[in-house]
Amino acid sequence: MELYGHSAETARMTNSDRSPAPFGRALCAMITPFTEAGELDLDGARRLAGRLVREGCDGLVLNGTTGESPTTSDAEKSALVRAVREAVGDRVHLVTGVGSSDTRHTVDLALAAGESGADGVLVVTPYYSKPPQDALGAHFTEVADASGLPVMLYDIPGRTGTRIEPETMIRLSAHPRIVAVKDCSYDFLGAQKVMARTDLAYYAGCDEHALALYAVGAAGYVSTVANVVPGPMRAVLDAFDAGDTAGAARLMRRAVPLIEAMMAAGLPGTVTAKALLAALGLPSGPVRAPLRPAGREVADGLRTALAHATDEFAVA
C-alpha cells in the first residue's frame, strides 16, 4: 500500500521523526512509600523502584505529584533520590520534582537534586500565585541557569491554576538545559504545535494520552498507573515501535478501564495507586494529610478494575 508516495513499511515513524528521549521512554511517576507511622520508608522505596525497573520502566520520576511532594520535606526528597539511586544504579534515568511556588526554594531544590544523584529535575509551574507568562519564563530560566541538570517542565494547569502557553514553551526551548515537558495540559493541538517547532521531548503526563501523544512523536510517558502495571504500559509503546499500531491501540484500550478507575474516579492518583499497591503486597503505606486513604468501597472497586485489567493483559 502506498501512502503519499511511500510504502506502509517506510511510512512507519522512525527515530528521527520522534522527539528525543533524554530520560527514557517508559517513566513511572513513583509513589513515595511511608511506614505505617507515616515516616519515609526508604527500604520500601528501594524495593518498589527495583520492581518497576525489572518490569519495564526505563525512567523513574520521584518527588512529583504522585510522590506527595507537597507534604515531604527537602531532606526527605534528597534521601529518597539517594536511596532509589542506590537501588537501581545507572540502569535507569532518575528525575526528581523540585517545583515550588518560590523560585529561590526551587533553585535550592534543584541544586540538592544534583548532589543526591538525580539525572534531571521536574519543575512544575508555580502554583496559587498564578504568575503571568513572562514571569513563568523567568522562573524556569532562573532554575535552569542555576542547575547543572537538564530540566523537564511540568505543565498541569488543572492543579497549578496557570498554563505554560505554547509560545512560552517555544521560547524556553532555546535554553540548552530545558529539554523536556511533562504534558498534563489536555491541549493536544498545543502540544503538537510545540513539538513541531522545537526539539523538546514531550512526555504524556495523563495516562490516557500515552499512546495518542506517542503516535504523533512524543518521547514517551510519565505514568501514575505504571506504579501498578508497569509492564502493560510499556507494552503499548513497544508494540507501536514494532510497527504493530493495531496491537498498540488494543493494549491501550485494555488499559483504559484501569486508568479510569485510578485517575478519573474523584481521587488523586496517589491515593488509588497506594490502595492497589497495598492490595498487591507492595511497598506503599499511608498517604499524608490532607489526603486520606481510599475508602473500602472505592478500594474494592479498584481491585476489581485491576483484576479485570490483569485478565485482559494476559490474553493480549
UniProtKB/TrEMBL annotation:
GO BP annotation list: diaminopimelate biosynthetic process; lysine biosynthetic process via diaminopimelate
Residue positions of the active site: 154, 182
Family matches, as InterPro entries: Aldolase_TIM, DapA, DapA-like, Schiff_base-form_aldolases_AS, Schiff_base-form_aldolases_CS
Signal recorded as keyword: no
A Pfam family the protein falls into: DHDPS
Chief place of localization: cytoplasm
CDD domains linked: DHDPS
Pathway note: Amino-acid biosynthesis; L-lysine biosynthesis via DAP pathway; (S)-tetrahydrodipicolinate from L-aspartate: step 3/4
Catalysed reactions, as listed in the record: L-aspartate 4-semialdehyde + pyruvate = (2S,4S)-4-hydroxy-2,3,4,5-tetrahydrodipicolinate + H2O + H(+)
Keyword Ribonucleoprotein (UniProt): no
EC numbers on record: 4.3.3.7
Binding site for pyruvate: 66, 222
Site entry (Part of a proton relay during catalysis), positions: 65, 128
GO molecular function, one term: 4-hydroxy-tetrahydrodipicolinate synthase activity
Matches recorded under SMART domains: DHDPS
Entry keyword set: Amino-acid biosynthesis, Cytoplasm, Diaminopimelate biosynthesis, Lyase, Lysine biosynthesis, Schiff base
Enzyme's top EC category: lyase
Cited HAMAP family: DapA
Protein name in UniProt: 4-hydroxy-tetrahydrodipicolinate synthase
Gene behind the chain: dapA
